[in-house]
Write a structure and sequence with these properties.
Distance between the termini: 26 Å
Shape: globular
Radius of gyration: 22 Å
Number of strands: 31
Number of domains: 3
Number of helices: 1
Helix content: under 10%
Length: 420
């Protein structure tokens, strides 16, 4: 039965929210956090059991550093809680990183650090959003980077589907997510305290959040209003094969080596908005560290200065708009580090990134400087086709009456094509 009082629900995009993924030290590169043996998965672990996370990073200082890590429990909007770490961590919350190796067969010298979490020394005891903090010399104020991860209680059944929106204006360009949550394991749960967050691929900052269902059928909550959970579909991501710095792949124009540094010039990118859609396997904006020139990717991969180029139709700058290089290669942020810069002399946009050998996927996003709109991100640069294969990750948070933080009761990831 339709619950009339719940029709006054709140659908929110981009709650005022901090981005917990930050690299503070410019010497730190290729920071990865993911479940062990699942390099493309969201960094989510089960509270009681399951696959742990693998964390790794490279340090261009190329000499040993005393690095430590700690974890901090956060609210669903990534604001700090007022909870002491003794109440959400079993063991210690300042652990030295002792597993490292030295680069070899690479022009760029670096130290590669890695560790597994949770472990015997440090285990979370509460579900929710967490920030991993890596810092120097046991001084938590001397941060080098922070990364998000999630601890899930897995007390809810979550089912979701991806369909064409009902609205004919966007039915061929966008995707609609319908979510059902079974709460029978938690009969006393207060539905008004639930928060559902849906993330397309890895674009956390453009998540859509719902604060109430629009149907309740027994223990099942349904989030399926026609104008909610709508995402631009985009296209399959662009790709760059950087697994070899000897072989010129389809996307590479040329290699150069200057002062013992590798430079990779990519072929110019142009708008794909008017190009025909076709499906192919992609990484949905993520990347894989890999190497066809050596045996070990962790410490034998080299780095390169990779020059991306984007050509506008008339070789003139986009007035009142900013062009961004989007994907995990720019930390999925739209900021100065991902903004393409127009070179008036050459009549094109460019951006140089320092990338480790691997396979990368990315897109271009165009946003109005005065009125940015997530729904228009791909319209002019990539085009939108509802058939595009995308991943959608669903997080369900709960703030129990009197609780001091948002618990994460459920999490799942679905694929748009697998749900057809």
């Amino acid at each position: 039965m339709l619950c009339q009082g719940l029709l006054l629900l709140c659908s929110v995009r981009g709650f005022a929210q901090n981005n917990p993924d930050k690299i503070v030290d410019a010497n730190i590169h290729s920071v990865l956090i993911h479940p062990v043996n699942k390099p493309l998965a969201i960094p989510a672990i089960m509270l009681k059991e399951g696959t742990p996370l693998q964390i790794s990073f490279d340090d261009f200082k190329a000499n040993y550093q005393d690095y430590y890590y700690s974890v901090e429990l956060m609210n669903s909007d990534w604001t700090p809680t007022n909870i002491n770490s003794f109440d959400y961590v079993r063991g210690f919350n300042q652990i030295k990183i002792s597993d490292f190796s030295v680069s070899s067969m690479a022009y760029q010298h670096y130290f590669h650090y890695q560790f597994i979490f949770p472990n015997a020394n440090c285990t979370p005891t509460q579900s929710g959003n967490y920030i991993l903090k890596v810092f120097k010399n046991a001084n938590v104020n001397d941060l080098v980077f922070t990364k998000r991860f999630y601890v899930v209680e897995d007390q809810l059944g979550i089912a979701a589907t991806v369909t064409e929106p009902f609205d004919g204006n966007i039915s061929k360009t966008h995707q609609k997510i319908a979510v059902k949550i079974d709460t029978k394991q938690l009969p006393s749960l207060q539905t008004e305290q639930l928060l559902v967050e849906v993330v397309q691929n890895y674009r956390y900052n453009d998540a859509i959040k719902l604060t109430a269902p629009n149907f309740i059928r027994g223990s099942v909550l349904e989030y399926n209003k026609e104008d909610q959970l709508i995402f631009p579909a985009g296209k399959e991501t662009r790709w760059l094969d950087l697994q070899s710095l000897q072989l010129v792949s389809d996307r590479i124009s040329k290699f150069q080596k200057i002062d013992d540094k590798n430079y990779v010039y990519l072929k110019p990118d142009v708008s794909r908005a008017d190009m025909a859609y076709y499906s192919f396997n992609d990484l949905n904006g993520n990347y894989l560290i890999s190497n066809t020139d050596a045996l070990q990717s962790e410490n034998q991969n080299d780095y390169a200065q990779v020059i991306f180029t984007y050509l506008t139709k008339d070789h003139i700058p986009l007035v009142g708009q900013k062009l961004y290089l989007q994907g995990a290669l720019t930390n999925n942020e739209l900021d100065k580090n991902s903004e393409m810069i127009f070179d008036a002399k050459l009549g094109l946009y460019q951006k140089t990134l320092v990338l480790k050998q691997g396979y990368y996927s990315y897109n271009y996003i165009l946003r109005d400087s005065r009125d940015p709109n997530h729904q228009d991100d791909f319209t002019e640069t990539e085009g939108n086709h509802w058939e595009t294969e995308n991943n959608y990750s669903i997080f369900v948070y709960y703030r129990a009456p009197g609780a001091q933080h948002d618990s994460l009761l459920g999490f799942t990831t679905i694929n748009s094509k697998q749900s057809w």
